[in-house]
Design brief:
alpha/beta; two-stranded parallel sheet; about 30% helix; binds S-adenosylmethionine; binds iron/sulfur cluster
Length: about 350
C-alpha cells in the first residue's frame, strides 16, 4: 500500500463556492488569504528523502496539490513546487482554472503535470456554484495547458443549473484535448442537485464515498485504494478531509496567531461537539497541535506517533466522531493500522 499526500500550498482563493469550508463560517476571514508555502517550505515538509521512498513504512506515490481552502495555482511558486515534486513522485493539481493567464498555464503544462479543472456552466452568467469564475477563461487556460503537454481533466460538477450541459461540455473538453470526468456533486442549499441524476452506470464518474462498497474504509488507514494524508499550509498533518473544518475550529487561535490552546467556544454544531469530545483529547494527550506539525517534526514521526496510534485504538469506543462519519450503521468499519 502506498501513500497519497494531499498538500495545501496556501490559503488563497479567488472564488466563493458555497460548499467550500471557506464559505461556511467555520474558517473565518482572519484565517484566510495570508499564507503561501514557499518552495523551501515544501522541501522541508516533503524532503527528497521521503519522496524517494519506494518501499518501507511511508512510500509516497502521489502528491495532490489541493486541500480544503486553497486554490493552488495562486501560489507564486506553484510551478517551481510542481517541478520539484515531479522529479520524485506523480503530481496532480486540483484547480478552479480561473486564475492567471494562458502564458502561465502553458508553462505549467510543460511540466507534464496532471490538472483537474473544476468547470461550472458554459452558459453566460450561470456560474451558480463556482461563483466569480469565468468559464471562457477556464477553457482558454485548459486549452493552453493541454497544448503544451499538461494532462488536463475537465471536471463537470452537475447541479440543476447546468445539468443540461453534459454533452456539450464533453464535446468541448474533447476538442481541446482534455479528459472529461463527472464529479458527483455534494448538495448545496442554494445550488440544488437533481436527485434523479446519480450517474450509477457511467464509468467516468468520481464518487467521494463509494456507496456500493460493502466496507467503508478510513481514508487515512486504508481506503478502497491507497492511503491518503492531508497536510495543511501551516504544516499540520491531519487525518482526512472530513476532519479539516473541525481542526480549524478547535485550533482557531493556532491558525490565526500560533497560540496552541483549544478553542473554548462550543458554537460550531453537533458534529464539532463529538469531534471535540473524542478526537481533540487524543491530540491534547499526545503533545497538542504542534505534535502534528511539520515545522516541529518529521512526517514519519507524526504518522508513527502518539496521536495516530491513539486514534486507531479509540475506534473501539462506541461514541466516536469517526463512527458518525464513516460507520453509520450501513458500513462495517475496517481499519488497517500503520
Ligand atoms: C476545496 S477544492 C480545492 C482545490 C481547488 N480550489 C478546486 O476548487 O478545485 C478540493 C476539491 O473539492 C472538489 N469540490 C469542490 N466543490 C465540490 C462539490 N460541491 N462537490 C464535490 N466536489 C467538490 C474540487 O473539485 C476539488 O477537487
Ligand atoms: S475554488 Fe476551490 S478553494 Fe476556492 S472556493 Fe471553490 S472549492 Fe473552495
Ligand atoms: S473520519 Fe475518522 S475514520 Fe473517517 S476517514 Fe477520517 S479519520 Fe478515518
Amino acid at each position: 500500500m502506498k501513500f497519497n499526500v494531499r498538500l495545501e500550498i496556501g490559503n488563497y482563493c479567488n472564488l466563493k463556492c458555497p460548499l467550500c469550508i471557506r464559505e461556511r463560517g467555520f474558517v473565518t476571514k482572519d484565517m484566510l488569504n495570508n499564507l503561501h508555502l514557499s518552495l523551501d517550505d515544501v522541501k522541508k515538509f516533503l524532503p527528497r528523502r521521503v519522496l524517494s521512498f519506494k518501499s518501507g513504512k511511508f512510500p509516497i506515490k502521489t502528491v495532490i496539490l489541493s486541500g480544503a481552502v486553497a486554490e493552488p495555482t495562486l501560489n507564486p511558486e506553484c510551478i517551481e513546487i510542481v517541478e520539484y515534486l515531479s522529479r520524485y513522485v506523480f503530481v496532480v493539481i486540483d484547480s478552479n482554472g480561473s486564475t492567471r493567464n494562458v502564458d502561465w498555464w502553458s508553462k505549467l503544462g510543460q511540466t507534464g503535470v496532471e490538472c483537474g479543472f473544476g468547470v461550472d456552466s458554459i452558459k453566460p452568467n450561470n456560474n451558480k456554484y463556482r461563483i466569480n469564475s469565468n468559464t471562457d477563461k477556464v477553457i482558454e487556460n485548459m486549452k493552453a495547458f493541454a497544448a503544451s503537454g499538461g494532462k488536463a481533466k475537465w471536471k463537470y460538477l452537475p447541479y440543476k443549473h447546468n445539468e443540461d450541459e453534459q454533452e456539450e461540455q464533453q464535446r468541448i473538453a474533447e476538442s481541446i484535448g482534455a479528459e472529461f470526468v463527472i464529479i458527483q456533486p455534494r448538495p448545496a442549499k442554494n445550488v440544488p442537485v437533481d436527485a434523479s441524476k446519480q450517474f450509477p452506470e457511467e464509468k467516468n464518474v468520481v464518487h467521494y464515498v463509494d456507496n456500493n462498497s460493502p466496507h467503508y474504509y478510513c481514508k487515512l488507514f486504508g481506503t478502497v485504494g491507497d492511503y491518503l494524508i492531508e497536510i495543511s499550509p501551516e504544516g499540520i498533518v491531519y487525518p482526512c478531509c472530513m476532519t479539516a473544518e473541525n481542526i480549524y475550529c478547535a485550533y482557531k487561535d493556532y491558525f490565526i496567531s500560533g497560540n496552541t490552546r483549544v478553542n473554548p467556544s462550543e458554537e460550531y454544531g453537533k458534529a464539532y461537539k463529538v469531534f471535540k469530545e473524542t478526537i481533540v483529547p487524543l491530540i491534547e494527550d499526545n503533545g497538542g497541535i504542534t505534535s502534528l506539525s511539520l515545522h516541529h517534526h518529521r512526517i514519519e514521526e507524526i504518522l508513527g506517533g502518539g496521536f495516530y496510534q491513539a486514534l486507531v485504538k479509540s475506534w473501539e469506543n462506541k461514541y466516536h466522531y469517526c463512527k458518525n462519519n464513516c460507520v453509520n450503521g450501513k458500513y462495517e468499519f475496517k481499519a488497517d493500522t500503520l
